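Regression test case RT-17, inverse folding.

Input:
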């Protein structure tokens, strides 16, 4: 279901529910709607906040992971959000990792799903084909185990984005920034409890990447979802949310 998009200054976001803070970060081609099932499941127990990362709106000379993290940090400070349960998908996971290392005192728990930061095989690595709906559809379906899981509306949204040359340039620049920023030497410093939820059939950040995260981050729990690719919260929402619930609410279940 659609949720209200709010604005405060330069920041756009969704905020639903009340309780402990749960901040969700979307990926490179992600949309706020990617998290609909999470909102529906947890809004009665958590204050869910989903900032829109300014991937397409940043001036090209400023494009990069650091600028996205700066944006997130400014938003969190403005909203005075603390004790954060922070979750990121794909590029959003990468942003979450960098933010956690910057401001670990504000993060209570970290959840990564299909996160970049070690290795990713992403659509954004080369210039997207402008004007080719079939190309966009094929690449979008590549991120799902069952292509029927993806809606025509979602494909159309990505297609409209790739019709813009400035937006395409930003996509490529951010993807390259992510590929350059390998965090293998940094993430052992993350001390907060971390949950890794991975699609067993992920083609973008394969299961080996999840095992590497599990090995490098000290306090982790790794859970795989079968018949699932790069966006488990969209493709297997019930299983994804059950694992989330165990980690965020029933703490002893994953211990």
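Golden output:
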């Amino acid at each position: 279901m659609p949720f209200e998009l709010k604005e405060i200054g330069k920041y756009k976001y969704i905020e639903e529910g009340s309780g402990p803070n749960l901040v969700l970060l979307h990926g490179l081609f992600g949309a706020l709607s990617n998290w609909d099932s999470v909102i529906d499941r947890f809004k009665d127990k958590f204050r869910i906040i989903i900032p829109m990362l300014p991937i397409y709106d940043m001036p090209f000379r400023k494009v990069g992971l650091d600028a996205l993290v700066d944006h997130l940090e400014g938003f969190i400070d403005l909203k005075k959000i603390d004790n954060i349960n922070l979750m990121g998908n794909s590029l959003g996971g990468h942003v979450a990792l960098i933010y956690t290392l910057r401001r670990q005192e504000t993060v209570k728990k970290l959840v990564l799903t299909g996160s970049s930061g070690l290795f990713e095989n992403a659509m954004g690595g080369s210039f997207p084909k402008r004007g080719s709906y079939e190309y966009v559809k094929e690449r979008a379906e590549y991120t799902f185990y069952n292509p029927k899981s993806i809606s025509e509306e979602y494909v159309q949204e990505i297609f409209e984005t790739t019709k813009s040359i400035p937006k395409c340039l930003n996509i490529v620049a951010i993807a390259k920034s992510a590929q350059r920023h390998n965090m293998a030497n940094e993430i052992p410093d993350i001390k907060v409890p971390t949950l890794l939820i991975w699609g067993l059939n992920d083609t973008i950040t394969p299961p080996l990447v999840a095992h590497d995260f599990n090995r490098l981050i000290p306090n982790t729990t790794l859970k795989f979802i079968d018949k699932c690719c790069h966006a488990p919260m969209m493709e297997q929402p019930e299983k994804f949310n059950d694992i989330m619930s165990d980690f965020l609410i029933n703490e002893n279940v994953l211990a």
